[in-house]
Structures are given as C-alpha cells and as structure tokens.
Write a structure and sequence with these properties.
The complex is a heterotrimer of chains A (333), B (393) and C (287).
Chain A lengths: L6 H4 L8 H22 L4 H22 L9 H16 L5 H23 L4 H21 L1 H4 L24 H23 L1 H11 L1 H6 L4 H27 L9 H14 L5 H20 L4 H15 L4 H12 L4
Helix pairs in contact in A: 2-8, 3-8, 3-11, 3-12, 3-13, 4-5, 4-6, 4-11, 5-11, 8-11, 9-11, 12-13, 13-14
Chain B lengths: L1 H16 L9 E7 L6 H18 L2 E2 L2 E9 L5 H14 L4 E4 L3 H14 L3 E3 L14 E3 L4 H5 L1 H8 L4 E7 L2 H16 L3 E8 L7 H10 L3 E5 L4 H12 L8 E5 L8 H4 L7 E4 L8 H14 L8 H19 L5 H8 L3 E4 L2 E5 L6 E12 L5 E12 L2 H4 L2
Chain C lengths: L1 H29 L8 H18 L4 H27 L4 H23 L10 H4 L1 E3 L4 E3 H23 L1 H11 L1 H6 L4 H22 L10 H4 L1 H11 L4 H21 L4 H15 L10
Antiparallel strand pairs in C: 1-2
The chains are: A mainly alpha (333), B alpha/beta (393), C mainly alpha (287).
Chain lengths: 333, 393, 287
C-alpha cells in the first residue's frame, strides 16, 4: 500500500522555465487577497487570523505529504508543540510576540525531528498509523502535564505585549491579522525557494522513486528528516500565531481531529503546489464558517457534500481546477 | 491562475457577506454552543432553554425586541471560540454573549469582554476559575465542585466509609475527584484509591475489576455524559458490582435524562446529586418542561443544559431591563448581582461577589415512573449551596 | 490467577468486537485498495436500523441483526455504484477525501432524522443475563460476541481461501486487468466484496453496540481505533487482523487495569512498537 497521491507529481518538474512569473503573480494575488480580506471583512479578522494559522499548518503538511510522499495524520503534534511552547513561555514572562513566534518555530522544529525520526522507520499505512499514535501521545502528555499546560481547561492568561511596543493585540484583531499575513507571506516565499532548491528537488525525487535516489548515492533519511524539521518550524509558527492571537491554548491544538481536518483541507486544495494548501484552507474554513452560521445544527452534511463534489469534479484538488481554467484560457501555460 | 483566484475571491466574498444584519433597535444576543458534533445534544438543549424562555416571557423587553444569534462550536476549541465571539461582537453587534459549553472556550472569550463592553452569561462551562478571569462574567449553570460536594456527606450517612473514586482524566473529572475527596474525608470517610481513566475508554470492565479489588464499599464516578456513561454504568452492572451491594455515587451528569432511555434498567437505583432534575416538582418547572419540550421536539432529549440556558436568558432579560437597551456591560452585570428568583430548578440567587449561581443541590435516585420511563427522583435537598470551588482559590 | 483469567476474558471479548467491525475495513483496504473511512458510518447505520427494528417495532434480536445487515447493504448499493466506483484505483488521499465527505453527510443526516441521543439495541433475555464461567461471572452477550468473532473469522477464511469466489477475488486483487481478460467479471467481484465488507461492518456495529454505543458521532469517534487495528494487523489479512485485535485488546485491557492513568500511553506506545517491528502489520500482504 503506497499512500502517496499522484496528484502532486504531475505539477512537479516539467514547466520550470515559465514558473517564476507565475509565482510572482501568485504571491501578488495572495497579498491582494489578504488586503481584500482586511478591507472587505474588517469584522471577521479573528476568523481570518485563525485561517492563516491553520494555513501555516496545512502548508507544513504539504511539505511532507506533497513534496516527500510521507503520509501524516498527526501534524497537529507539531502545531501544538509550537502553540504550547509559545503559550508556556508567555505565561512565564516572555511576552514579546516576535520572540514567541521564534520559540514556536523552534519547538515545532524540535518536535518535527522527533516525529520524523519515528515516522521514517515505516512506509505507507504503517507510517500513517505511527503519525496517529504520535499525535495521541502528545495529546495525552499535554493533558497529563496540566500543571504547566492547563490540561483540558486550556492554558489561559497569555498577556502578549504589543507588537514592536506599539500595536496591541485587541478585540478587533488588526495587529494579529497583519502580523499573521506578513508571517504567511514570508513563510510562503521562503518555502517557494526551498522547494525549488536542489534540496527540494531531491525531496520530490525521493517521493517518486526512493530506490533510484538511493542508487544515485543520496541518503534518503537525513533529507526527509530535514524536511520534517522545516515543516515542524512552519507548523510551530502557526501554533504560536494561534496562541498569540487567541491568548489561550487548548488541547484541540494537539488533536487528531485538527490533523485530519488539515489533511482534508490540503487534499481539497491539491497537493504539492503550496497554492493548493492555501486554497484548500480558505475554501474549507470559509465554507464551514458560512454554512455553520446559516444552520448551526446540520451544516456538517453540507461540508460532506462539498468534499464529495470536489472529488467527483476535480480529483486532483481545487488547485488543479484553477490550473485547468487558466490553462484553457491562455492556451497551454 | 489569476482569473481563477479572482473568481475564488469573489465567491468567498459573496459567501461571507451573505449574513448582513438588520435593525438598529433590536437587541442582539449571541449564543455560542455545541450545536453539531459529539455534543450536539447539549447544544440543542441550550436552544430549547432559550426558546422556552422567550416563548413564556415574550420576545421583547421594555419595548426592545430581542434577537438571538446562534453560533456553532462543536468541540472545545478556544481559537474558534474567540473568533466566533469577536464576530458576534464586532460584526453582528450583539450586546450580550451567552452559552459556552466548555471551559477553555470560556477562557478564550473572557479577555475580550471589557473591550467589547459585553457581559458573558455562561450556560454551562463548569470550572470554578472562569469567574476570576473577568468581572463581566455571570454563570447560571453549576460547578462540578458545587454539585459534587453534598455527596461526601450522603455516602458517610449511608454508612459507607471506604470509597474508590473513578473519574475521566480531564479537568472536570479531576475537579470532581478533589471535591468529593475533600467533602468525604471531612465527613469522616476514606478514599482508598483514586483512579483516573483516559477519556476514550470504551471497555470499562478492567476498571470494574480494579474497583472490586480495592475492597471499597462504594464507588464515586465522574464521566462526561453520553456514550462513556452508558458503557460505564453497564459494566458496573454486568461485572456484578451492583449485585454485590457496592454503592454508586456520582454527580448528575451521569444520569442526565436524555441518557436514561438508553441506560434503562441498568441505571435503576443509581444515586446522583445535581442542581436540576427534569422531574422536579414545581409549577415553574412544569411550565418550563412543557415549553422546552415543544422547542426541542421530543421529551427524551431534554437535559440539564436547558435550564442553565433558560435561567441565563432570565439574567440577560434582567440586564436589558436595567440598561434599557443601552450597551453598558458594567451596569448590566451590577444589576443582576444579588438577583434572586424562582427557577425551574428551585430558588436561586446570583452571588454578588462571585457572580456564580447559588442554588439547591438535590440528591436523586433513578426510578421507574408509572409510564414505564425512568426518571431522576429527588429524595433529599441541600439548600443554598454556593460554589465551594471558588472558596479554595 | 483469577484476576489474570478475568482480564484475559475481557480482553478476548473486546478484541473480538474490534475484529468483527474492523475485518470489513481490512478487506476493503487490503483487497480492494480503498481507504474507506466511512466504514464506521455503515456500522452506525446498521446500529440505527437494528435499534429501530428491535426497540420501536419490537422485533427479535436475530431479526434485527438480519434486517440491519440487509438494510445497510441496500443503502450501500447506490453509494458503491455512484461514488465508490469512481475512486477505485484513485490515489489514497483522494479516497480519504471522498469517504470523509460521505462520513460527514451520514453524521449530519442521522443527526437530523434520529436526533443526537444514544440509541440502544435491546438484548434478548438469554444474552442479557450474567453467566457463571467458573472463575467469574460474565455477561452472556460477551460470550456471544466471542462466538460471533470466531464464526466470522472462520467463514471469511473459508470464503477467500476455499471457494471459487475467493479465487476470483484474489485474482482480481493481484491483477484486475488480467483477470478481466480471463473472463472474471471484476466489477461484480468488487461489488460483491464491497457488500460483504459492509455487511461485516453492519454485523459489528450491531453486536458491538454494547461496547461502542450507537449515536451520530459514532462514525468519527472510533475511526482512529479502526484504522490502527487494521494497519497493525496488516490490511487484507484475516489471521493478521485476529492477532492484532487480540494483542491490542490485551494491551488495552491490561493497561487500563494496571495503570488506568496511563492507559492511552500504554496503548499507543505498544502501537508504535508493533509498527516499528512489523512495518507491514503482523501479516500484511507484500506491496
């Protein structure tokens, strides 16, 4: 049983030349959408910030699922590690937001190393189950250590000091949103460079054929482990952002449910493009928000129907649909 | 790709803007609760309580129309909780927040209240510490310590000196364990063993084996209501502990009315302490049950969160009355400090200092009614119970 | 000694419940290569049907089980025809997306029609009594569950290893195109094995209801457990699934007896250990 999806491999190598301007357009449109979100929905910034935090998590999953072919249902372990590290640091007097983000990234990367070391021992379904077991162990540990994590009551009372000493994290959430958006952009651009680098290419190669890569003389394990650390840092920053913007860290941030939801968002958007991760997160969470506001009792059916419809209409995820549309407009891109 | 992005953006925009709000004079109340997912039943009870109150007391206060907006928060998720609260306050312009089933969700909302100039009336979340996090919180439900404490004395009075405690390993479970231990040992009993079991336990027979081995004469249990309760009570019967005469004590979460049809015979004779039984005998409750049953659709689904919501709406109505429709959180909260009234559960009062509800706690026994249905029969009343959890902090 | 025996019996009963529910998933994942996360949803549908038949219509337990299995299979036919057939051979993650979508829909619909309360399936008198088995008393239905598990395991083994359908199924799994060319109607084989898997889920949902109570969230609540069991056993292997269920049942039950506080640590640490030692599960098929 090989748990890699073929959807990602299609977009991998061939179109290298024309890609740079597409990325510029892509990044500009993220900025435009981010700004549009700020102006159009000034009353929903907390939701948008939450979407950004989850988008970081989904991006981090794309790094290992979409680029390395390692299936995971436990990525929230890394997200939660970042969230709790930032939260605990904040409660203990480290209140500067940038420092907290760095702490979250470091904790996420460290957790990523642990997780990678264990998960890379197996393949396919077994790997998936290892990831589930790890996130459950993290969850149990956070629940058990209630003296420092607050257990199931949550870690409350995070008093984050103003960003750069000026901008407060308040009810309206402008600071948190703008900081989150900036963070997302920086991370996204950095990741674009990473996945296009020789290291990123090597990862894709491993995804497609680990045996051949090994035969070429490359060491597979350290390469994948490095990606796990990077992915952990990204997820950890997402967790730290969530902790800073909500001022509470709950057990849900290290749950299987969050991991599974995030994976669903990624597959919904499409694997292995980084754009898919963003599209999937925005569509899934936006849709969920809207239908659950319209009917708080029975919205789950609608979300289920959306997922089924996407599989039927665009098996490669929504981003493949976008490619198809733009492809048919401008001839072959 | 850009074209696609634009379409995408436009689509999301259209979706997000679809819920634009209405009139200025209407006073809006935002209710956050688990309306879907594993705790959907409790959320439905929130809604039933709110609708029952509005059906019995009208949909306007002093000429101000009251509009309720529900937001779904299926499981404990502080980030989503905060986002929902912020949206309700900033976008929907609600003047009052209510509901909240889980403690961490409440903890995520309380830091916003002062800036939002909005009081939060908690319909359920049962950890004592929430009240300390903001002066704008009022609670109309109960705390685990409050409902548990009388059991310590009950056990000793029944001649049980040695008890084993078995609780789910999470915040409320640990609160219950501590509260019971304190009360039981103060009354002269001894907790011989304290077991905390993982939340996702599905087979309870090994736990029952532990209970048997401990040699205790009674067992104190706390589990979240729903599926785990069913398995636990069944295992207690099937392993022969009930037949062996081991006494069973628990707060009323374990025998909530909506679980009783499923528990059936297995629950008969179980003693629990709680602030509200659907079968409570009073004219206020009769009216309430009738209205709430109509709102929820089926009598089998009615449970304790509905009364927390009902009284929560009462408090919110009083707040609206005191502020005459103007947004003034402090004045609103001040107005209900010391407020006392007769709730469907009996006489209650909002304690001025703690803003928590003081109420009767009842000892109940699961009995079979003349119609063949099981219900919680109140057999003893502990009047005017405050929250002992807060006193210790 | 008595305690050890007692724990072992509990472990056996719990393991067998897991087996009956999970073996269907193991077959879909191992033989048909479909990651059917909606497996629990079918078990739940069966539970609702059985509950309705036994409680509201007052039919017997055996009839209720039969109706539940048939009813669930009937419900699954259009799903197989219109949804699952599209994802045979798709990448696993696409299958995950589709089947999670189906699960969400099923949860939403059940919640709408049956409400969020727990549903029980009343047991017949003979099964609800405690039985004395020498060293302890045990609920009769636990013995019934153990027996069911043994029958299912034996029956499946016979079906797959000893009948002509089993030969066709194995051939289809090994090489669908070649089997097709040799005259095996692979579509039919797939449809039938899907129905068998669903039927097993239904049986498990009903007889396991005493352990895993029926409510709308059932479909998601136990998904992790099912996945873990299947992969520890090795997808597609009946004997592997039996071993996995017994081992995990034993670890879970003993863990919860000896150290309930750390029951989950125990369980998942064991899972990690087993998976590291047997990366394909106990008796997984070669890839």
């Amino acid at each position: 049983m090989q748990l890699t999806a073929q959807a990602g491999t299609v977009s991998a190598a061939p179109r290298a030349k024309s890609l740079w301007w597409r990325d510029v357009i892509g990044i500009v449109s993220i900025i435009a959408l981010g700004a549009a979100g700020y102006w159009l929905f000034p009353d929903n910034l907390a939701l948008l910030t939450r979407i950004i935090a989850v988008a970081l998590l989904v991006l981090s999953i794309d790094l290992i699922v979409g680029y390395c072919g390692v299936a995971t249902l436990g990525q929230a372990a890394l997200f939660g590690a970042g969230a709790y590290a930032a939260g605990i640091a904040c409660v203990n007097g480290v209140t500067e937001p940038m420092t907290l983000l760095a702490i979250g990234a470091a904790a996420g990367a460290a957790a990523g190393l642990v997780m990678g070391t264990i998960m890379l021992r197996a393949h396919g379904l077994a790997q998936l189950v290892l990831s589930i077991a790890i996130v459950q162990l993290f969850h149990e540990a956070a629940n058990k250590a209630s003296a420092i994590t607050g257990g199931s009551d949550g870690l409350a009372g995070l008093m984050v000091s103003p960003l750069f000493g000026i901008f407060e994290f308040d009810l309206w959430g402008k600071t948190a949103y703008i900081m989150g958006l900036a963070l997302l952009l920086i991370v996204f651009v950095a990741l674009k460079f990473i996945v296009a680098s020789p290291f990123g290419m090597l990862c894709r190669g491993i995804k497609q054929d680990p045996v051949r890569i090994r035969a070429m003389g490359a060491f597979v394990f350290p390469v994948l482990l490095k990606m796990f650390a990077i992915s952990g840092a990204v997820a950890g920053m997402g967790g730290a952002l969530a902790a800073i913007s909500t001022q509470v860290v709950g057990l849900d941030s290290v749950s299987f449910e969050l991991s599974a939801n995030a994976l669903v968002m990624l597959v919904l958007g499409g694997l292995g493009t980084l754009y898919g991760a963003l599209i999937g997160t925005v569509i899934f969470m936006g849709f969920e928000h809207v239908v659950s506001a319209i009917n708080p009792f029975h919205w789950m059916t609608m979300v289920g129907a959306l997922l089924i419809a996407v599989v039927l209409a665009a098996p490669g995820g929504l981003s493949s649909l976008v490619e198809k549309v733009s492809g048919s407009r401008g001839g072959k891109a | 790709m850009t074209a696609g992005k634009k379409i995408l953006g436009a689509a999301i925009g259209a979706l997000l803007m679809s819920s634009v709000s209405a009139y200025a004079e209407t006073i809006k109340v935002g209710i956050i609760g688990p309306f879907s997912g594993p705790f959907a039943l409790q959320g439905k009870n929130f809604q039933a309580g709110v609708e029952a109150y509005m059906a019995l007391n009208g949909k306007s206060v002093k000429g101000h129309d009251v509009e309720v907006i529900y937001r779904d928060l299926p499981a404990a998720n502080p980030a989503q909780s905060r986002a929902l609260a912020q949206e309700l306050v900033v976008k929907e312009k609600v003047q009052y927040l209510g509901g909240v089933y889980f403690t961490p969700d409440a903890m995520a909302i309380t830091p916003l209240l002062a800036q939002a100039n909005t009081p939060l009336v908690i319909f359920n979340a049962a950890t004592s510490a929430i009240m300390n996090t903001s002066p704008l919180v009022v609670r109309t439900s109960f705390t685990t310590a409050q409902t548990t404490t009388p059991l310590g004395k009950v056990a000793v009075d029944e001649g049980v000196r040695k008890v084993i405690t078995v609780v789910s390993d999470y915040g409320p479970g640990i609160d219950a364990e501590n509260a019971f231990k304190k009360a039981f040992e103060a009354a002269g009993g001894q907790v011989v063993e304290a077991i905390r079991m993982p939340m996702n336990t599905a087979d309870f027979s090994p736990i029952m084996q532990r209970v048997r081995d401990s040699g205790a004469a009674g067992v104190f249990a706390f589990l979240p209501s729903g599926p785990p309760t069913l398995g636990f009570v069944k295992a207690f019967n099937e392993t022969g502990l009930k037949k062996a005469g081991i006494k069973f004590y628990a707060p009323g979460d374990l025998t909530q009315e909506s679980d009783l049809p499923a528990l059936g015979e297995a629950a008969e004779g179980l003693k629990t302490s709680f602030h509200y039984a659907v079968a409570h005998d009073s004219p206020e409750n009769k009216k309430f049950v009738e209205a709430a049953t109509k709102a929820i659709g089926s009598a089998d689904q009615l449970s304790f969160p509905s009364v927390g919501a009902y009284d929560g709406m009462h408090v919110i109505y009083k707040m609206i009355e005191a502020t005459d429709g103007k947004q003034d959180a402090k004045k609103a909260v001040d107005a209900v400090k010391g407020l006392s009234w007769t709730s469907p559960r009996g006489p209650v009062r909002i304690e001025p200092e703690t803003r928590h509800i003081t109420q009767n706690i009842y000892l109940r026994e699961v009995a079979k009614g003349s119609d063949g249905k099981y219900f919680n029969k109140e057999i003893q009343t502990f009047p005017d119970q405050k929250d002992p959890g807060l006193a210790t902090q | 000694m008595q305690t050890v025996l007692s724990i072992a019996t509990d472990a056996l009963a719990f393991g067998m419940v897991l087996f009956i529910i999970c073996i269907g998933l193991s077959l879909t994942m191992g033989l048909m290569r479909v990651v059917n996360l909606a497996h629990g949803a079918f078990a739940m549908i069966a539970g609702y049907i059985a509950s309705y038949a036994a409680r509201d219509l007052g039919l017997g337990y055996a009839v209720a089980i039969f109706l539940a299995i048939v009813g669930t299979i009937i419900i699954s036919i259009p799903l197989e025809r219109f949804l699952y057939r599209r994802i045979y051979g798709s990448p696993e993650l696409t299958q995950v997306l589709m089947t999670i979508g189906i699960t969400f829909c099923v949860i939403g619909i059940t919640n709408y029609f049956f409400g969020p309360t727990l549903k029980t399936i009343p047991l017949p008198q003979a099964l609800s009594q405690p039985v004395d088995i020498g060293f302890r008393t045990i609920a009769a239905h636990r013995l019934f569950v153990i027996a069911c598990g043994a029958v299912v395991a034996g029956g499946l083994w016979y079906l797959i290893e000893r009948t002509s359908f089993g030969i066709k199924l194995r051939a289809t799994v090994d090489n669908a195109a070649m089997s097709d060319a040799l005259g095996v109607r692979t579509q039919v084989v797939y449809a039938v094995s899907f129905a068998i898997a669903i039927g097993l889920a239904a049986l498990g949902g009903v007889v396991g209801a005493e352990f895993l109570p029926i409510e709308p969230y059932y479909a998601l609540r136990y998904m992790v457990m099912f996945l873990v069991v299947v992969s520890v056993g090795g997808a597609g292997s009946i004997l592997g699934a039996v071993i996995a269920c017994l081992v995990l049942g034993l670890v879970d039950t003993t863990g919860r007896y000896l150290m309930p506080e750390f029951g989950n640590f125990f369980f998942y640490a064991a899972v990690i250990l087993i998976v590291c030692l047997f990366p394909r599960g106990f008796l997984g098929r070669a890839q």
